Every structure is written in C-alpha cells, then in structure tokens.
C-alpha cells in the first residue's frame, strides 16, 4: 500500500512534473485508491492539482503557493493533496477538465479541483495567486464543515452533468460522402485568417490535423484553395516566432494572431504532428522551403528530444523561472555575438528591434523572408546558436509517452520518404524497437516511462492507436513483418478493451479493465492531439489492407463504423475533427493501395509510388506473394510493376512513374 499522509510522497514518481514538487512543504501524494481512502477516513476534501512539466503558470503557482509554508499548512490541515501529471494520466485530466469548464466556463493548467472523498468535484478553477488561493482554501474548508449538504448537492449535480457529457455524440449522422467532406472543408476555409495564416483568433495553436486534411482534400479534388490555405499557414507559422529560427522546432502556441510571440514550451506531440504535415507538403510540392522545414523539424525531434532511442516529452517554457529567457534577443546582444555589421544585418533579417516584440525590450526571432545571402545566413545562424547554447537552458521533461512516440515514428518515417534521407527512418525504427520492448508489459501496453522505468499508468486508446499507426507506417517502408504483427496486436487489444459494445463505432478512451473513475472518458473531439477514436480509425483503415483475412475484414468493418459514427463532427464542427476529416478523405479514395512488384532495395517505381501516393494511401513493395497486397502480383515483362487499387477495385498494372501518377488522378 502506498503511504499517503504526513509527508510529501512525490520523490519516487515516474513523472518529472511530480518530482518538481517533491520538495514542496505540501504533503502531496499521487492519485491512488489509498489517497481517496485517506480523505474518507479524515473526512476532508481532496485538493486535486493537475499540470505538466512545461507549463509556465504551473511553475508560477508552485513557486508562489506550493512552496509557501503558510499555504502548505492550510492545504495539509484541511485536505488530502493529490498532484497529477496530465500527460501521465490523461484520463483523470479529461474528467476533471470537463468539470472545470462546466463550472468556470474555461479550462487550463494548472487545474485546481476540490473533490469529495469519492472523487466528485464541487469546485474547480485553474491558476490562483497566493493570497487568493489562501482565501479560497479557507472558504472551501469552512463550506465543507458548515454547509456539507450544499457541497453534496453541488457535487451530485456536476457528477450527473459529467455523465451526460460522457454519453457521446448522438446517432443518426449523415452518410460519409464526397459532398460531406467538401462541405466540411468549405466550413474550415471560412474560418481562415487569410492575412496572417491559421484559424480563429489568438491564442493560435498550430492546426496540424487540419493541415493534413487540407492536403488530402487537395489531392482528392484538385481544389487549389485547400492547398493555398494550408500553404499560407505553413509559411506563417514557420516564419513566425512560434518556430525556433535557430534550432528548429515549434512552440506550443502563439499568444498573438500573427504567430510572433510564442508560449515557449516545445512539446513532442506538436512537433511530431507538424512534421508529418510538413513532410506531406514537401513530398507533394518539392517546395525547397517545405523541405527545409521538414528537415529542421525532424532534426529538432532527433537532436533535442531524443534520449536512448525514444523521444522525451517537452522542453519547458521557462528558464530559471523566466519565460522565454533562453530564446529572446536585443539588438545589442546581436552586436555582441556577431559584430556590428552582421549584428545589424541579423536584426533586420530576424525582426529584432529596439522596442522589442516580447517583454523588457527583447524580441523573438522571426524570418519574414529568406535572405538572398544564404552563406551569410547560415553563418549567422550557426554563431547565434553557439551563443545561445552558452545561456541557461530550459528544463526538459524526460518522460517517454507512448502515443507521442507513435506520432514521432509515423512522422520521421514519412519525413525520410519525403526527403530521401534514411537517417530519419533509422531513428523511427530504433524508437519503435525501444518503445515496444519497454512499454509492453505482460502483454499490455503502458502509458509512460522515465529513465527506463515504466510507470503504473495503463495505456489509453490514443496510445494503442498512435503506436499502431506508427508501426504500420514503418512496416510499409521497411517491409518488416514484425511491425505488422505488433500493430495488429495493438488494434486487437483496442477492439477488445476500448470499443463500446453497446454503440457501434463508439470508443472509450480508457480500457474496460482500467481504474474506474467518476465517468469513463469517451471524447471523439480532437484536442491538443487527435482524439483516440480518430487515431484508432486510421490504424484500422491501414491494417484493413495490410493484414491477412479474416483480421482485415474485421478492421475494415470497424473503421467504417467509426467513420459513420463520427460524421456529425464533420457536419457540425469540422475544425474540432481535423483528424477525422483526414481519415475520411483517405476512406473516400478507397483508401488507395499501391503494391509494387520489385526489389524494394532498388526500385525507382517504388520510390515514385511513395513520392506520388496521396496522404493516407497504403504503399508496399517486394516480390510476388511477399505481403497481402502482393499475393499473385508479379513484375510485368521483366519490369517493376505497380498495382493501384481503390477499396476492392484494382487497375491494370503500370510500369512507369508517369502512368502511376495518372492513376492517382482518377475521380472518386
């Protein structure tokens, strides 16, 4: 049994975020049945605090309140204090974020929730400054002791509302058709900020799933505006301060509508999802800027987030408690680093002004246009990178999250194909081997690890789905059957433990044998990452054409049912279902499958197939009968031959890249 009282218990946690609070005078414990039992035995509320390591305001509240002796004394006396890493326990985060939004009208981190001992929330908020937090603690304590009936009633009401929210989407949505997807794209395009790129108002988050969907829509329909919208956003983000102009990598979001000032934390999932979209753009257009951005983002993931073959979670927004300290510049600092001539030139190139674009006269580097003097640009970037490396650096969350590594496997594999650079495929392969070896324990997938030690948290649907898709992507490029086997095992586990037996096409985010929470999360809407339901549908869609029967038929039926259940999102809220839209676009085309009968180590036709295939297509290459798609399919007249199919309908084989490209233009 875990100890729960009398001292801070976070020193042995597998989450760096929790360990950041191990020296607090607060008697923090991790979420557990024992912690809830202690609250019941003491007859006190639970104070649940949820955050993550790269969160700026989490650090602020920790410094102001959780490190303060008076605040800690009030917390310890009146509450059982539970600290949760939202990245390690996304199930808890989902439940109590819904409660926070329902009660306060907005959510965010740090999340601060007061619960009954059985986990029902009765008051929720986000960040509180020290004095306000002390007042809140006193008010909640008094209310708990003197107005208990009101607390119980409020907690019952919010629990009932959460259960209603968990019921999911209504049935009876429209049929998946080209018109439905065209309408969804039209709705998305109406929300574009044409002048500044992206969608909606500040803060602006990189819309990676929507960008992938727009590229796939362009490939299906030839619609120029879909590609133009995606390209405007690709350029605006990559030239703004939200992108690190020296080391590569994207920050979590921009606080302004023009992508100038970022919230400086860098997350693995953002960069992996964006890498996939940029790689698709680079592969589709061969645009030099797209290729550079793909390469630099891939390098950032490998160089800055890599650790022992797998990839760590994030870099903090803060350095020594100051947001953005590592990244911002003043004109005088450029002069000191580069000399006056190059300093003035760099200030002009990167938009560094005396007034500044950030705090205290500092500026975030931007790149409004590529300079003509490429040699000088490369030299200046290298020198500024060298100087910046000598500054204090942001902390890194070394936790390894299964789903985010799955995103990285997919993205690095696709970047390798887009750029023709095998190094990124090698990185994806190493990551896949490490994550499968470490995170599959006794036949079941785990959510996270730290320093080679796997945490107790069970994997959620997102983990199974993202890793399965990554392995299926890797299998297509490497022809390694091991990855196909592991991926289909993960999808089988998803079907067994996460599919809703009472509602066809609906998915729960937690397994049927996972810890029972106040409600069982089942959210089909995209959030910071694509929804688990949309991700598993993509994995099933791919496996339906890579796995042998009867597994393949089961996967195809499950993918179709999922898409059918999700059509209300495409009809009513397409910006909240970018990944659904991407998967739907692929489904409308079959998805396209290309099997190339060849020697995969030396086939120009296979390389052309990978370069030309639309997003979501399935591409395999090898000798006759070497995979499901190559059964009975051989070279033609001694030449490599590509067999193009849509669903269960196949064209005659082609032997040239030109004929292969023409095959992809056939109407849906």
How many whole angstroms does the radius of gyration measure? 26 Å
Low-confidence stretches: none
Protein structure class: alpha+beta
Which whole number gives the mean pLDDT? 95
The CATH C-level name of the largest domain is Mainly Alpha
How large is the count of helical segments? 24
Helix content: 40-55%
Integer tally of domains: 4
Protein name: Spermatogenesis-associated protein 20-like TRX domain-containing protein
Pfam family, one: Thioredox_DsbH
Description:
- This protein has 668 residues and is of the alpha+beta class.
- It is built from 24 helices and 22 strands.
- Strands 2-1-3-4 form a four-stranded mixed β-sheet, with helices on both faces.
- Strand 11 (318-319) and strand 12 form a beta hairpin.
């Amino acid at each position: 049994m875990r100890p729960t009282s009398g001292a801070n218990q976070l020193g042995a946690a597998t989450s760096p975020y929790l360990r950041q609070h191990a020296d607090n005078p607060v008697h923090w414990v991790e979420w557990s049945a024992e912690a809830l039992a202690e609250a019941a035995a003491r007859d006190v509320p639970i104070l649940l605090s949820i955050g993550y390591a790269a969160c700026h305001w989490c650090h602020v509240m920790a410094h102001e309140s959780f490190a303060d002796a008076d605040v800690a004394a009030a917390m310890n006396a009146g509450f059982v204090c539970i600290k949760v890493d939202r990245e390690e326990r996304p199930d808890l985060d989902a439940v109590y974020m819904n409660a926070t939004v329902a009660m306060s009208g907005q959510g965010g981190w740090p999340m601060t929730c007061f619960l009954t001992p059985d986990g029902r929330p009765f008051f929720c908020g986000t960040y509180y400054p020290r004095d306000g937090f002390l007042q809140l603690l006193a008010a909640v304590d008094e209310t708990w002791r003197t107005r208990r009936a009101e607390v119980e009633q409020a907690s019952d009401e919010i629990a009932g509302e959460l259960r209603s929210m968990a019921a999911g989407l209504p049935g009876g949505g429209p049929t998946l058709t080209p018109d439905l997807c065209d309408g969804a794209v039209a709705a998305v395009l109406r929300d574009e900020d044409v002048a500044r790129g992206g969608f909606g108002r500040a803060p602006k988050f990189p819309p990676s799933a929507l960008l992938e969907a727009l590229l796939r829509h362009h490939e299906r329909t030839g619609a120029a505006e879909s590609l133009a919208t995606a390209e405007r956003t690709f350029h605006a983000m990559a030239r703004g301060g939200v992108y690190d102009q020296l080391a590569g990598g994207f920050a979590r979001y921009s606080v302004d509508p023009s992508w100038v000032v970022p919230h400086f934390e860098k997350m693995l999932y953002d960069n992996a999802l964006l890498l996939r979209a940029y790689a698709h753009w680079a592969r589709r257009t061969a645009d030099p800027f797209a290729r550079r951005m793909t390469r630099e983002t891939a390098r950032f993931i490998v160089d800055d987030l890599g650790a022992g073959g797998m990839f760590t979670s994030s870099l903090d927004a803060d350095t020594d408690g100051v947001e953005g300290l590592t990244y911002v510049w003043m004109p005088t600092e450029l002069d000191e680093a580069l000399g006056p001539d190059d300093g003035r030139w760099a200030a002009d190139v990167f938009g560094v002004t005396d007034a500044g674009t950030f705090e205290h006269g500092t500026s975030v580097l931007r790149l409004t246009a590529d300079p003509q003097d490429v040699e000088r640009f490369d030299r200046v970037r290298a020198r500024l990178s060298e100087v910046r490396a000598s500054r204090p650096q942001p902390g890194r969350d070394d936790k390894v999250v299964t789903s985010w590594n799955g995103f990285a496997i997919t993205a690095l594999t696709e970047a390798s194909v887009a750029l023709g650079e095998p190094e990124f495929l090698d990185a994806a392969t190493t990551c896949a081997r490490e994550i499968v070896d470490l995170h599959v324990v006794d036949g079941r997938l785990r959510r996270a690890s730290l320093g080679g030690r796997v945490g107790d948290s069970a994997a959620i649907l997102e983990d199974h789905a993202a890793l399965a898709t990554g392995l299926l992507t890797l299998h297509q490029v490497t022809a390694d059957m091991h990855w196909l086997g592991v991926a289909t095992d993960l999808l089988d586990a998803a079907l067994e433990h996460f599919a809703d037996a009472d509602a066809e096409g609906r998915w729960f985010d937690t397994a049927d044998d996972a810890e029972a929470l106040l409600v069982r999360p089942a959210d089909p809407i995209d959030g910071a990452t694509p929804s688990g339901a949309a991700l598993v549908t993509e994995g099933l869609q791919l496996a339906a054409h890579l796995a042998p029967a009867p597994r393949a038929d089961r996967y195809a039926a499950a993918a179709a049912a999922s898409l059918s259940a999700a059509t209300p999102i495409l009809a009513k809220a397409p910006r909240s279902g970018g990944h659904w839209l991407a998967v739907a676009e692929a489904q409308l085309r079959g998805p396209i499958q290309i099997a190339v009968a060849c020697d995969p180590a030396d086939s120009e036709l296979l390389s052309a197939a990978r370069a030309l295939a639309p997003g979501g297509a399935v591409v395999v290459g090898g000798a006759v009968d070497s995979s499901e798609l190559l059964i009975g399919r051989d070279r033609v007249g001694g030449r490599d031959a590509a067999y193009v199919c849509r669903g269960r309908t196949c064209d005659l084989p082609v032997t040239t890249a030109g004929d292969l490209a023409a095959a992809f233009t056939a109407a849906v």
